[in-house]
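Progress note, project year one: complex with pantoate.
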Amino acid sequence: MSEPAPQPAPSGGPRLVHTPDELRAALARAGRTALVPTMGALHEGHRSLMRLAREQADTVVVSVFVNPLQFGPNEDFDRYPRTLETDIVACAEEGVDVVFAPTVNTMYPTEQMVTVRAGSMGERFEGAFRPGFFDGVLTVVGKLLHLVGPDVAVFGRKDAQQLAVVRRMVADLNMPVEIIGAPTLRDPDGLATASRNVYLSAEERVSALFLSRALEAGRRVAADGPDAVRAAAGAVLEEAAEATPPVEVDYLALVDPDTFADVTSGHRGEAVLAVAARVGRTRLIDNVSVDL
Ligand code: PAF
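Model obtained:
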């Protein structure tokens, strides 16, 4: 794939850069820097990450890169929404300073032989359903952190396992960056905002609402302990399996937020109640924090 020609920044908007050299030049005089890594198709959820980044730093960089390493052979890499023009408008509205939008060739000019492995934490839940997913995420996030060199990087708590493995990579590899988890943004009906929501038909969207409903049902009985939480959420998902179109659950899990290990029946304290399910051809994930 050939490099896109460098584009002038729209006046008052972010500087749009495509290569590491352009990025380095754009950040030459940057002060405290925050990175918001994204795959584009920016929505309100991303905007809330940008706003959090803005509060943390003088210079905000948003990366827009659909990372092939984190897509399985039967996943939606080719049909993943790519909307750079409107992404830049969103970044301009949020006061972003630099948008880094490299091509696949720029990020992976040769076969990526050396990669980051997420270890056993990346093989559970999302990692079990999407083998290699977290290795792909960590490899690109590691590269972006090296390229941008931010003081802080902001990730959504909606991807709770991703946030946990990124934190673990940063700790295990002594990367000098603070990782901030931003709260999940929801539409008024409760659906967590996500780029893949655009795939949902009106009927599928109604079925998709069972996810947040199940999580809320679990959270409501947190005082009764982990088994009650799992049972309450599970009951709503059983109902969801009968909906039209049905919600096909990949997993429902109550886990430690740092390790993503299942919490035991006697566990007390913070936990994450996470769910993943397919509605039609769209795979959705969601989670809530539960104070047991
Ligand atoms: O969460 C995402 O959008 C992606 O996994 C990320 C962190 C940008 C890496 O490609």
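The two ends are 51 Å apart (CA to CA).
Residues 202-220 form the longest helix (19 residues).
No further modelling is planned for this target in the current period.
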